[in-house]
UniProtKB/TrEMBL annotation:
Residues 63-88 have a biased composition (Basic and acidic residues). This is Bifunctional lysine-specific demethylase and histidyl-hydroxylase. The keyword Repressor applies. It comes from the Eukaryota. Belongs to the ROX family. NO66 subfamily. Residues 47-60 have a biased composition (Low complexity). SMART domains: JmjC (SM00558). Residues 1-135 are annotated as: Disordered. Binds 1 Fe(2+) ion per subunit. Residues 12-22, 35-46 have a biased composition (Basic residues). It is found in: Nucleus, Nucleoplasm.
Amino acid sequence: MDEPRNGAALLRRGRGRRRRQPQPRGGSVLALPLRARKIRRHRRSAASRVAALRARALPSEAWDSKVEPAAGEREGSAERRETSRSAEPRPVPVRPRPASAAVPRRVEGRAALSRDPGTPVPLPGPHVDDPARPWDSPLQQVLAELNGIPSSRRRAARLFEWLLAPMPPDHFYRRLWEREAVLVRRQDPSYYEGLFSTADLDSMLRYEDVHFGQHLDAARYVDGRRETLNPPGRALPAAAWSLYRAGCSLRLLCPQAFSPTVWQFLAVLQEQFGSMAGSNVYLTPPNSQGFAPHYDDIEAFVLQLEGRKLWRVYRPRDPSEELALTSSPNFSQEDLGEPVLQTVLEPGDLLYFPRGFIHQAECQDGVHSLHLTLSTYQRNTWGDFLEAVLPLAVQAAVEENVEFRRGLPRDFMDYMGAQHSDSKDPRRTAFMEKVRVLVARLGHFAPVDAVADQRAKDFIHDSLPPVLTDREKALSVHGLPIRWEAGEPVNVGAQLTTETEVHMLQGGVARLVGEGGRLFLYYTVENSRVYHLEEPKCLEIDPQQADAMELLLRSYPEFVRVGDLPCDSVEDQLSLATMLYDKGLLLTKTPLVLN
């Protein structure tokens, strides 16, 4: 039987800144089994232990902070509409570039990009230390607020709330997600300041090993024809800016590999979506267009960073294009109907549209445009899940139920098939009823939990490495004072004890998966900021420690005393906790004390 079956048999599975509300002059906000058999070696289940932990949890520590909605949050009623011709910068699907993309390297003697999840490195260049940079922008304020929120899940929810503000996230998910195009008009040009800028792009071209076709595309759309004009080799400033002056839009693939702020932004939000969050940045010259009308296979959030851009968004042309699973070819203007939303995005505005919505955009009025497209939910559908479940369910049903092994009627070809589709033969009716009965029984054999674990494993591999808060650094292995001094390592000897209280580093950093009769803990802390540059990383977990590992995963963000882990011995308790702590997957309630 396949590994998912074996795995299933082995393991069950602050306050926002107050801002003046926009005036009503343009419309403000919204436009529109294998049945799992669980290892159970202890009387109390992991779920009951989690409940007990939460029931006796003490009041929040000093690190805790309440998250309150931004003042004055409300919905607007009308969308601002403007007219013009158009064409648009295309958000590339959620997966930035195949694994062929090399790790971005610093050049001119600079160090390579750090992969340490606790140490985001700012971009080099003179603009980085510019005192005029907007460190007091709403973005920087919310990032500072996130640093004081101890739970990664609450951080993800808060950042998404900020991204949509003043629209409530529950309204968005209930009424608009996967259904409608949405415009959030803020009239606050500083809202995204500090996320990414043309100065950041210029610095990357100078100090990073950026290559055309691999990290940067130059494209234009003229007279209904799309052109990609990537020269070979490195994207030096002279080449890139010359193409920009010639009317080409510049599309930066995977900016999170270069920008620590974009990395942090996406690393937090991926836990909100439960799906990989990717991004591209688009810089378009004045009075130009870079990409043809098309639709994508991702949920797209367009953040306008600089300048202005006219957008047109169209509903899917027919039901087959709704929530599309693949991106479309380029369309001509004659292929399109009337837009459902037409507007000019200005700095601070947000535009959302579901996969399958055709879109196009262009710069006008002698003003350039810089925007970031956040993309998620690529191939994350019920259909994708069932594609994995059903073959395994059939295989299990054939093995375990004799009804699935009985022979077909000898004469079924006399009344089944396209040539008999209009037949009223009662044998055909009986055959169809038998098929319906067997299909209904498949649900009993579907290894749903095992397939969910495999998809979770894939998500762990897709994910960006975590960016740590000050608290997470201080209370994890990254905060140990061990260092080299006077010819030898000093401050060595801090150890976990049975009295140490611990929890996982963050909520989404690890997943326990059964494969081939063994247990593996897949984790994100050693992932690369370049998509799938590294192979999946995992630790093998002893089956004797399965309950303890599950308790740690399910109890987050509550602390668990190492001595309360459901293991057979103190040695097993300490060995599991120490392995996780040393790997950077666990943090302690208080800093470890040197022995």
